[in-house]
Amino acid sequence: LSPGAKMGCFTFIKVMMILFNLAIFLSGGTLLGVGIWVKVDGESFLKIFGTLSSSVLQVVNVSYLLIVLGAILLVIGFLGCYGAQKESKCLLMMFFSVVLIIFIAEVAAAVVALVFTGLAETLLTGLVTPLLKEKYGVNDTFTHIWNVTMTEVHCCGLNNYTDFNNSYFYEIHGSYPRQCCDMLGVSPPLAHPHLCGCLLQGCFKQILEEIKTNAGVAGGVAAGIAALEIAAMAVSMYLYCRLDEK
Questions:
Q1: Which of 218, 196, 128 is nearest to 164 (CA)?
Q2: Which residues contact 21 (CB under 8 A, 6 or more apart)?
Q3: Is 239 helix (H, G, I), strand (E, B) or coil?
Q4: What's the CATH number where 109 sits?
């Protein structure tokens, strides 16, 4: 290519890099704002989106997830956009490094999820089960999230109904949550609800089945994200190397 064509190609890729990362920056700001809103006023968020949100997101703390994702996208978008605009080799290398770290983390997480599913279940049980015992029936937002989850997924607790044994809710009401039994037409209070048709399956295995059912869609989305990350790293390296020739 002639010097003019090379310069034109460089300018085009630079502009695309700026626009792409500007979109990422704005998306990150939006997610961060929504995450802060959920943290400050979780009840309003759940009233609007609770029944529409996926079962998986209802098990985790949505506010912290959105805040972390938003902050990461803000950093990536700023480094890519400002680095391309100012033609800063330092910022472009930082952008490349951050995206590379995220890409490696995603690959590692995918491998761990595939190979150590049992370990993930054990860790999740160790974290969530104590929260169910302590916060269910105490914290309104936490209770509402689990009520929606158990109703939509048709499950009880994380592992099964025994997650509520010796819990605050069971000690106060002497029964398991209504959502655990209503699906089969049984309503507490009962002396032993689990003997009278209480849902035995836990939410973790039910959600895992939903994930496996939609594995093709999830895999396609993951592959698309990975392709974008590889493309972003390639473009940033192209701009980084071309700056030496200017």
A1: 128
A2: 76, 77, 78, 79, 80, 81, 84, 95
A3: helix
A4: 1.10.1450.10
**Same domain flag for 70 and 107:** no
Angstrom distance (rounded) from CA 194 to CA 201: 11
Do 110 and 79 sit in the same domain of this protein? no
- Is the whole-model pTM more than 0.70? no
Q: Burial level of 217, CB count in 10 A (0-12/13-18/19+)? A: exposed
Helix, strand, or coil (residue 2): coil
Give the integer Cα–Cα distance in Å for 212 and 123.
20
Q: Based on the fold, state whether residues 62 and 102 are members of the same structural domain.
A: no
Q: What is the pLDDT of residues 191-214, one digit of tens each?
A: 344 444 555 678 887 777 776 676
pLDDT digits (tens, 9 = 90+) for 19-39: 888 988 998 888 888 888 777
